[in-house]
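Risk register update: the risk of archive-format incompatibility is retired. Evidence:
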Amino acid sequence: MPAQPDARPDPGQPVTFRWRKWDGSPHWVHECVYLGRDDHGDWLGQMADWRSARPGRDAVAEVPNVTLVPAGGDFACTVNEAGHRVRVYIDLGWDVRWSHTVPDEMTGIDMDLDVVKATDGRGLWIDDRDEWDEHRVRYGYPEDVQRHLERLATDLERRVAAAEPPFDDATADAWLARLAQTAPPRLSW
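Archived output:
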């Protein structure tokens, strides 16, 4: 149970990744497994057919994927197995971290902006700028948070384009291989 910032579940342990919006309302919840940690942060995995849900929508992973959550807590980078139409999907966030109250749960505030690298010809872009513009007014995002995340989105887009680690294929593929070797139990939601 991650009761302190340095506590982690054991690799292979089922975990839940729970997003909320700035006002505390529920957002995406992902069924995951903890894979381990490296110099870039914590890595979670999701097998094909594992569940992701949010109010009004239920989905399953089409292919295995891994998610990096760096120590800074301002994004989560998901990389899908090669062959999926989206290779990299970075959710910019706030306070992304292990829960101090719920065992084996990662939590974070979804901050709308996403960096997406598609393999189907659409390329690389910063997504959901319209949602960002709407929500920063509706929820009253602080100016310093807005400036930080706008700079971060641009920097992450640059780093993904340059394939800088951990946004290179080799780093994610090593964690995808680890996921393939893991026989995690399913969560029961």
